[in-house]
Design goal:
The protein is an alpha+beta fold. The chain is 40% helix and 17% strand. It starts with 19 loop residues before the first strand and ends with a helix.
Length: 184
Amino acid sequence: MASRPRAGFGVPEDEVDPQHFVVQISPTGRELVTIIEDYGISGPRIDSDDNTYVDRVVRCTIHPRRWRMVATPLKNAFNERLKSRRYRTGRWDVGENRVHRLLGREMCVLLWAVEQCEEDLVPAAINAWLGLRPEERWWLYAMAAHTSGKAGDHDRGWRKAIRFGLTEGATLPDNHRSTLLDRL
């Protein structure tokens, strides 16, 4: 039986420094929310840009308003998966929130899609993201993280493709559909 996590979203406490993601939420709620991939004891990775070894990589920074738009759908999706494996559920708190490495990859795909899009497209991106299987999200993360996976790479390569793929042409959930008269 797998170890049962007790902190964050799926990060086991009985493993010594596992690879995971960290979501940093400021106490004021005004600073950017930062998503960091922490390689843990598995060791540092080589940073191809600087040709140095790094233990942590900032994958995304997102405006707090956009974070609040996606935080609940992320929490619900993660908790549903954790419950199915009989793990303890999690919630977003101020400070550092640890997220299992696979869930963190899925989270990055959604955050990369909404970080630069128009705010009225965020519900469509969430809907499209929920329609993807976890394996599809992991594949998208792997494609983007290799060439454009750092916080400042939001308008390059696969990151740009993820944004357009999840927002352009995606359908809004029924409760977010508006008519022309609603926009006037």
